[in-house]
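Hi support team,

I'm filing this because I wasn't sure whether my run with glutathione finished correctly. The job status page said complete, but I'd like someone to confirm that the output block is well-formed before I use it downstream. Pasting the exact inputs I used:
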Amino acid sequence: MKLYTYDHCPFCIRARMIFGLRGIPFEEVVLLNDDEDTPIGMIGAKQVPILQKPDGSHMGESLDIVRFVDGLAGKGRLKEEIRPEIQAWLDKVDEYANKLIQPRDVLIGLPEFATQAAIDYFVRKKEQNIGNFETNLLDTRRYLDGLHADLAVLEPLVKRADGLNGEWSMEDILVFPILRNLTIVRGLQLPPNVQAYVAEMSKITNVPLYTDKAV
Ligand SMILES: N[C@@H](CCC(=O)N[C@@H](CS)C(=O)NCC(=O)O)C(=O)O
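And here is everything the job wrote out:
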């Protein structure tokens, strides 16, 4: 199976995770960020992730892909429960995470940004949502202080390093991609349980962290 992605895309990490968790081989194809024709040709929308299924048809929507691949694996199904406190944590961090992450995405040599046109496309599109990249970078300290407070709330909710809710579950599919992408922020300090969780999930899912490239 082929999975079309951007490396920085949290929804794509969801899809990448299930292949790693279930030990299913797949081919990852990272599209240029300004390539509209390829995704529109496959699912009628300029959006990733896109899975090319074994029958050659295409599927969008990360959670549909996760559940489809999980079903194919035949190794049981991920627990669907999302604890309300985890959902509340996601909602809170979602409000500002992109302000820390997206201005940095174009600075670390990711394959979806291999051309200047792809970088320009991303900057133009994302600045409409989060405002000027440079201004957000200058506000790093403030956002990082807020994030560190929110990570302290997550810390006691981590039941195991290899499963937020005590076993692999949809909570991991929702939370790990955000934490992985936040490792792009230099100065990020993860509390011990969260740190162990991020390291272990990266290993199990085969989704590398950005720690070494943090800016
Ligand atoms: N609901 C979709 C959302 C996917 C999504 O928003 N993907 C982003 C990348 S993170 C995208 O392709 N956006 C279009 C763009 O960046 O031009 C899913 O869960 O798969």
